[in-house]
Amino acid sequence: MAEELKISYFEKNPRTCPVCNKEFYHEMLLTGGGRLIAGNLRDDLRRTYEKSKKYGAVYPLIYVVAVCPHCLYAAFQEDFNMVDSHKIKEAFDSYEQRSKYMHEFFGPDIDFKKNRNLISGAASYFLALDGYRYHTKDSAPTLKKALSSLRLSWTLEDLASIYPNDNYDKLIPFFQYKASEFYTEAIEYMQNGKESFDKLKSFGPDIDNNFGYEGMLYMGALLGTDASKFIPDPNVKAKTLVQAKRKISKIFGSGKSSKSKPSALLEKIKELHTRISEELTYLNENYGINVD
Prior knowledge:
This protein is 47% helix and 9% strand. The protein is mostly helical. It has 2 domains: 184 residues, no CATH class; 82 residues. The strands form 4 sheets. It has a two-stranded antiparallel ribbon. Helix 6 packs parallel to helix 8 and helix 7 runs antiparallel to helix 8. This is DUF2225 domain-containing protein. Keywords: Membrane, Transmembrane, Transmembrane helix. It holds the Pfam family DUF2225. InterPro entries: DUF2225 (IPR018708).
């Protein structure tokens, strides 16, 4: 019976860390058998999952990042070996700093040789934010940092719902804001060619769907709009909202769904466009700010 209720397994063959050259076994999520029961798609394109009567709550996001348990270098599985050869020593030498900050945020008991849980899953994305500092442009590292920040905020949501007294909710706005910054940079780097997206398997933002470049523009606009709520200066807020609106205006203008613009995404883009327009109208009427 215990075998039937497994939700994950450790890979048969070890991986070799490109930073410290030590071997480890990465844990993978088992699929099928009713483990994942897909729910709704949220406005931030996160897929929700219903709790399985047989397996309980399953969190697929926590298995995405490969983490070396020896030096705590981390990256998405498909990018794990794409470390810049000129930065390996820097990555190796920064182990103590990674360990220090990880334990300050997530406690002393994290062990990546053991089965993942929500806390170590959140820590894996935290470590990936550092890991992509040592990557070449071929892995689109800035977008991966955006995805890591966003998914970290999602995992913190899950933790906050289970442990409401542990202050995980207080970390969420910070990592959402960092995701917004990284998305803005990633869009710029894709447009000017500073980073390569040719080998990118998925734009995400979640692991169940690839919403493509349009999804990246939408997420950049959505996160920027959400971040504007914390901006007290109406002029700066208006500038942030105008930038967000520009990100999605071309997609919104076409109005037709396609493979890269599925109807679910297009509908959310239209709703966000309306939301931003209404907020800009309010700023114009109440503060006389020109938002053209």
